[in-house]
Specification:
Distance between the termini: 40 Å
Helix content: under 10%
Order of helices and strands: EEEEEEEEEE
Strand order of the largest sheet: 2-10-9-4-5-6
Structural class: mainly beta
C-alpha cells in the first residue's frame, strides 16, 4: 500500500537548519522523480524541490542555494535539508511523487520563529 510518512519537523530560529525526512512505502524512490512540497498557513500547497530518478535536482527559486533534496534508496527515504531558514519557510512539509499525484501523507510542521 502506498504511503508517505513525513517526520523531523519542529521549531527553529531564523537562520537555523533542519532536515525533514519522508519514509516511503509501496514505491521505490530510486526509480521515480520525487518531490517535497509545503503548505504555508492559509495558502495553497507549493512545490519546493524535486530529485529525478537519475539524481538530478531542481529547486524553486526561493530555496535555491539553501535547501538540499536527497534520497537513501536502501532506506527508501527522501530528505530535505533546510539551511539559513527564514520565517516564510513556516509550513507543513509533504513528500510525493513529482507532480503530487499520489495520496498525501500527514506532513510535518516546520516553524521558523524567534
Amino acid at each position: 500500500q502506498l504511503q508517505f510518512v513525513e517526520s523531523g519537523g519542529g521549531l527553529v530560529q531564523p537562520g537555523g537548519s533542519l532536515t525533514v525526512s519522508c519514509k516511503c512505502y509501496g514505491l521505490y524512490v530510486g526509480s521515480l522523480a520525487m518531490s517535497w512540497f509545503r503548505q504555508p498557513p492559509g495558502k495553497e500547497r507549493e512545490l519546493v524541490a524535486t530529485i529525478r530518478a537519475d539524481t538530478t535536482t531542481i529547486y524553486e527559486d526561493s530555496v535555491k542555494g539553501r535547501f538540499i533534496i536527497s534520497r537513501d534508496t536502501v532506506k527508501n527515504t527522501l530528505f530535505l535539508q533546510m539551511n539559513s531558514l527564514k520565517p516564510d519557510a513556516t509550513a507543513v512539509y509533504f513528500c510525493n511523487t513529482a507532480g503530487g499525484g499520489r495520496a498525501w501523507g500527514q506532513g510535518t510542521q516546520v516553524t521558523v520563529s524567534s
